[in-house]
């Protein structure tokens, strides 16, 4: 039985800041951001968007009534959780009107969370072939203004329906994974901003990739020749290329050209959104699928997931016949083209607007936010969400 990605959706806030302008404001050469780390635009979330709304908006565009009836498991991968107790997935379950007879949980392991959710979903579908699982990867990356990590911030969510006989990608069984207790990136519960040892994290990202790649080859006897493309978790777009370059010499010149060209395509969406943590790898996959029109069914795609702290995994999927018919290219093209650029001072003002943490209530103006699902405020310590379509 084939199990994999039946549908995939994406959402990002309607605001962004140009990285050239941010570089000038921070007194650094623009090329440091646009070439050095490979970022063009950074999504800026208004206060009316949080990980719950981003995930719900991403799922809203792909779910039909049959999905809502058959989804019996919702798994929300995030490292930007809004509650220490209640799963962010429960809010999304309600906002989307899913069947009440469903399990709903939240999972956490830095940027690896959505991958863990997908692997859990595969096990559920293997036992319940008629079921569907909604996997959500949603985050807002915050490091703070004028910090070393500021240029790698971002916001967005990816939603995936995992099912038997998937229309887009069948996930293969063999994968390789690794865990090590390291402190390359973390966010204590008392902080709304992450801490990162950038140089150490880059080193561990590549080290983990090397180890899981070698383990995967030993398990499968596959090599570069067997891959049409390899997609990476992208905290910034140059990071994945650094990892890819460590193995390119294992292939022919044709392999190098193919994988390098397809990597560039896979990084395009991330280049214009920024880091979305748990959804980053799947945004890279989406960019490849939607923008490389001649990517043939039957192609094997490699997927490298890395979550600081740290857990890494390399796994693969096979593109299914007519998979392009089930993508939402037009919606995503419109999403990107309809975004509004904000100035650096406007971005800084938006960044500093945060929700109260003293128990006070707050009512937010959601009219300026074009998203269908928004955060409308806080009342009695409870977030108030609105689905404008209801």
TrEMBL record:
NCBIfam families with a match to the protein in the record: HMG-CoA-S_prok (TIGR01835)
Signal peptide start-end: none
Protein name as annotated: Hydroxymethylglutaryl-CoA synthase
Tree of life domain: Bacteria
Domain Hydroxymethylglutaryl-coenzyme A synthase N-terminal: 3-165
All residue ranges annotated as the Hydroxymethylglutaryl-coenzyme A synthase C-terminal domain in the record: 180-251, 263-353
Keyword field contains Ubl conjugation: no
Source species: Virgibacillus profundi
Transferase as UniProt keyword: yes
Organism classification: Bacteria, Bacillati, Bacillota, Bacilli, Bacillales
Pfam family, one: HMG_CoA_synt_C
């Amino acid at each position: 039985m084939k199990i994999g990605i039946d549908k995939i959706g994406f959402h990002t806030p309607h605001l962004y800041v140009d990285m050239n302008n941010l570089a000038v404001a921070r007194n650094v050469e623009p090329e440091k951001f646009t070439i050095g780390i490979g970022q063009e635009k950074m999504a800026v979330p208004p206060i009316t968007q949080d990980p719950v709304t981003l995930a719900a908006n991403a799922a809203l565009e792909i779910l039909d009534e049959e999905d809502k009836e058959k989804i019996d498991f919702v798994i929300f991968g995030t490292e930007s959780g809004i509650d220490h107790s209640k799963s962010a997935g429960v809010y999304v379950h309600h906002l989307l009107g899913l069947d009440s007879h469903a399990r709903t949980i939240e999972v956490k392991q830095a940027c690896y969370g959505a991958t863990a959710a997908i692997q859990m979903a595969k096990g559920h579908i293997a036992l319940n072939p008629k079921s569907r699982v909604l996997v959500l990867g949603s985050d807002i990356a915050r490091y703070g203004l004028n910090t070393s990590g500021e240029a790698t911030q971002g916001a967005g969510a990816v939603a995936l329906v995992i099912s038997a006989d998937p229309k887009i990608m069948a996930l293969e069984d063999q994968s390789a994974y690794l865990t090590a207790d390291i402190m390359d990136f973390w966010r204590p519960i008392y902080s709304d901003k992450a801490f990162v040892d950038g140089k150490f994290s880059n080193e561990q990202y590549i080290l983990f990739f090397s180890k899981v790649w070698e383990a995967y080859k030993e398990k499968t006897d596959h090599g570069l020749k067997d891959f049409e493309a390899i997609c990476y978790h992208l905290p910034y777009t140059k990071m994945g290329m650094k990892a890819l370059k460590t193995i390119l010499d294992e292939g022919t010149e044709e392999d190098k050209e193919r994988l390098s060209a397809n990597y560039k395509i896979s990084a395009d969406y991330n280049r214009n959104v920024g880091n979305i943590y748990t959804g980053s790898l799947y945004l890279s996959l989406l960019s490849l699928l939607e923008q490389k029109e001649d990517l043939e069914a039957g192609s094997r795609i490699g997927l490298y997931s890395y979550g600081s702290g740290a857990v890494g995994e390399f796994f693969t999927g096979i593109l299914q016949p007519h998979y392009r018919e089930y993508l939402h290219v037009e919606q995503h093209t419109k999403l990107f083209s309809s975004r509004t650029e904000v100035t650096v001072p406007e971005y800084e003002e938006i960044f500093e607007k945060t929700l109260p943490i003293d128990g006070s209530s707050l009512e937010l103006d959601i009219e300026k936010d074009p998203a269908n699902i928004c955060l409308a405020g806080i009342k009695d310590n409870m977030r108030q969400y609105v689905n404008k379509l209801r």
